[in-house]
Design a protein that fits this description.
single chain; 132 residues; alpha+beta; Dna Ligase, domain 1; 2 domains; 3-stranded antiparallel beta sheet
Length: 132
């Protein structure tokens, strides 16, 4: 958090995110903060989440509908996620094949310094079994 002020709101958002295991929207995080008695406006939650994501404190993924979801990840190293569409369960995964594919495509087209985000969405085993 170099260059960013440590505010009451930032501390409250960080503490809440430490308690969550899955990705949540800004609206969900705002509601949970209100449940904890925190008086933080939704716009402040959005700004705080985005600033903390930019500084690497949180991962962000975009749903198929374009909504941003946030989560404090366990790994600092580059990784990807597979997310259950039903319950939101999230698993962090390494993807050496993906990394090789990205590097190959970049070389093929003469690109350097390429970054990427890969998010996988599906139905976890528990939710699939419950649907049977």
């Amino acid at each position: 958090m170099i260059g960013q002020r440590v505010t009451r709101q930032r501390l409250a958002v960080g503490a809440l995110m430490d308690d969550l295991d899955d990705f949540r929207s800004a609206q969900q995080i705002h509601a949970l903060l209100q449940d904890r008695g925190e008086e933080i406006g939704l716009a402040t939650v959005y700004r705080t989440l985005n600033a903390m994501a930019e500084s690497g404190d949180f991962d962000v993924l975009r749903t198929e509908g374009g909504e941003s979801l946030f989560r404090r990840c366990e790994r600092d190293a580059h990784h990807h996620h597979i997310v259950c569409r039903s319950c939101g369960r999230t698993v962090e995964v390494q993807g050496p094949d993906i990394e090789e594919f990205v590097a190959s495509v970049a070389r093929q087209h003469g690109f350097v310094d390429v970054t990427h985000t890969v998010e996988l969405f599906g139905t976890c085993g528990d939710c699939a079994a419950a649907d049977l």
